[in-house]
Amino acid sequence: MRGHPWFTLITVAVGVMMVALDGTIVAIANPAIQKDLGATFAQVQWITNGYFLALAVSLITAGKLGDRFGHRQTFLIGVVGFAAASGAIGLSDSIALVVTFRVFQGLFGALLMPAALGLLRATFPAEKLNMAIGIWGMVIGASTAGGPILGGVLVEHVNWQSVFFINVPVGVIAVVLGVMILLDHRAENAPRSFDILGIALLSAAMFCLVWALIKAPEWGWGDGKTWTFIAASVLGFALFAFWETKVKEPLIPLALFRSVPLSAGVVLMVLMAIAFMGGLFFVTFYLQNVHGMSPIDAGLHLLPLTGMMIVGSPLAGAMITKLGPRVPLAGGMAATAIAMYGMSTLDTNTGSGIMSVWFALLGLGLAPVMVGATEVIVGNAPMELSGVAGGLQQAAMQIGGSLGTAVLGAVMASKVDSDLAGNWTDAGLPPLTAAQEAQASEAVQVGVAPLAPGTPEQIAAKITDVAHDTFISGMSLASLVAAGVAVVAVFVAFLTKRGENAEAGAGAAHI
């Protein structure tokens, strides 16, 4: 049983499930956390952004740790730390503590995600790697999309803290299985030293980039601070690239990016995550705050998305093994683009049937991309860099998620700001002061009507209509932008091809 490929897959799937689940399960819990802890919209965004920031900055370095010390050890440390941080969030009584421990979740999640891919790459023979990644992708896709459903059940029937407490028993199971089943694998020419300066430069560059994306909605895209961090990020990446050509054992050998398919796979992951993560952020507010659904009802309405990702991922693995990645990836992103266009047509009166069609199409489109882009990145990297390749794949997804939330959030905020005053006046409502308008705009950005206590019923109904219509206009524009991103990704998909180094996996040395 020890070292068996399929038992290894089950073990890493349990650990990966925690991290993927936490990427979206919190979306359903956000309104409850906001209310219970008295948090602002910006603070609630940090519950998600802090997690993404820590993940994005750490993933490639964490992958290198796995390549250097063995993926089994880094996986187990990541699981233990992630579960402990989750328990600490559940015990937190302030928004500051929640955000702090979310950052720790991200750091430990960064350890286990690339290690999981490294273990799969080393354990499975080439002819079965696509199917393994398909099932791995199914777990990530199902967990990511299923987060809102499980979150809805827990928030409605227990409390928001249970969303995090659930990771503790899952973590215990993953550790027990890991100790019993996982066998350490390391390539014969695995790195023996650390590129400390490279790690520092890359981490600083990634931090500046993600920080700029997170803060841009608050500072403004034209603000000097935003562009200072973007410029610092560009400089950091340039210095990192220069240093990597000089050091004996670089963190990321730049020759890796001479592989056009690998580079295309990384870009594809970024574009997919922009459309998916950015779009999902608004959908949860649309279902709960505009349609007035309970958290569990909102989660159930996303069941078609979850179901199609569960069904589609293993099928995508089989299809990619037979046809290669290009056609499934391009088709998947085309379906994603159509789904996001469809979501731009949602309004306050849209029925569940129409929503389900677009959510199902989105899940069907995302499944082959999650599987295929992963295989393209990991399969085109040398075995000794499987951890770094896994880190690249996950970092691309997290940066895309942050980029999607930031850019689509900016689109939403801009549209709400430009439309709210006119819609308010057209409805015959009393004019707002500048301060009141800013406060109302923040509420409307999450689909909430800015109602003062004691507002007469007739006026309250008008304000609610204005708030929901304005939110819908912002969400529609954001969805169209996401659809445009997905269209670009269709063309990137044609640059991919089957992994050239996948056959090296099954020959890895056992430590």
What this model shows, in words?
The protein is mostly helical. Helices cover 78% and strands 1% of the residues. The protein has helices at 5-37, 41-69, 71-90, 95-123, 126-157, 162-165, 167-181, 196-219, 224-244, 260-290, 295-301, 303-323, 326-343, 352-379, 386-426, 434-444, 457-493, and strands at 185-186, 509-510. A two-stranded antiparallel sheet has the order 1-2. It starts with a helix and ends with a strand.
Strand content: under 5%
Radius of gyration: 22 Å
Strand-pairing-aware structural class: mainly alpha
Query: Could you give the order of the helices and strands?
Result: HHHHHHHEHHHHHHHHHHE
The first-to-last residue Cα distance is 16 Å
Number of strands: 2
Range of helix content: over 70%
For the biggest sheet, the summary is: 2 strands, antiparallel
Strand order of the largest sheet: 1-2
| Low-confidence runs | 504-511
What is the averaged pLDDT score? Answer: 83
Q: What overall geometry do the principal axes of the alpha carbons give?
A: globular
Please count the helical segments: 17
Core attributes:
globular, about 500 residues, mainly alpha
Outline the secondary-structure elements:
Blueprint: H1 5-37, H2 41-69, H3 71-90, H4 95-123, H5 126-157, H6 162-165, H7 167-181, E1 185-186, H8 196-219, H9 224-244, H10 260-290, H11 295-301, H12 303-323, H13 326-343, H14 352-379, H15 386-426, H16 434-444, H17 457-493, E2 509-510
Helix pairs in contact: 1-2, 1-3, 1-4, 1-5, 1-7, 1-10, 2-3, 2-4, 2-8, 2-15, 3-4, 3-7, 4-15, 5-11, 5-12, 5-14, 8-9, 8-15, 10-13, 10-14, 10-15, 10-17, 12-14, 13-14, 13-17, 14-15, 15-16, 15-17
